[in-house]
Write a structure and sequence with these properties.
This protein is mostly beta strands. It contains no helices and 11 strands.
């Protein structure tokens, strides 16, 4: 299972399960993740989860910025489109989410995350 974990002050406050397909992020109603912040664009970014070509039971994740005004960041680097891996930190304006992939077989501490 792939999850987006919302991080506030280094603590996980919410998590969202993701499945195959597109997951839209933005300020407008109708987005899968609606962020109530004037700095977030109406249609800000989209996560796309597709079966891996070699291991179809695993999902590959791509994050694409949709021409947002304030940008989309992965591990503090502005991106237009980027393949996302387990543990990557996604930032959209003041919102931070860390990606967790239970199939990654990586030990992680999920209740508290040090601030980067």
């Amino acid at each position: 299972m792939i999850k987006l974990k919302h991080i506030v002050n280094g603590t996980v406050v919410n998590e969202i399960d993701l499945g195959e397909g597109e997951f839209s992020i933005g300020r407008n109603h109708g987005n899968d993740l609606q962020l109530d912040d004037g700095d977030v664009s109406g249609e800000h970014a989209v996560l796309t989860l597709t079966p891996n070509a070699y291991l179809p039971e695993q999902l590959d994740i791509t994050l694409r910025d949709l021409g947002s005004t304030n940008g989309t960041y992965v591990n503090r680097i502005a991106i237009r489109e980027k393949e996302i891996r387990h543990g990557d930190l996604i930032r959209i304006c003041n919102y931070e989410y860390r990606v967790y992939n239970d199939d990654a077989n990586v030990s992680t501490q999920t209740e508290y995350l040090p601030q980067e």
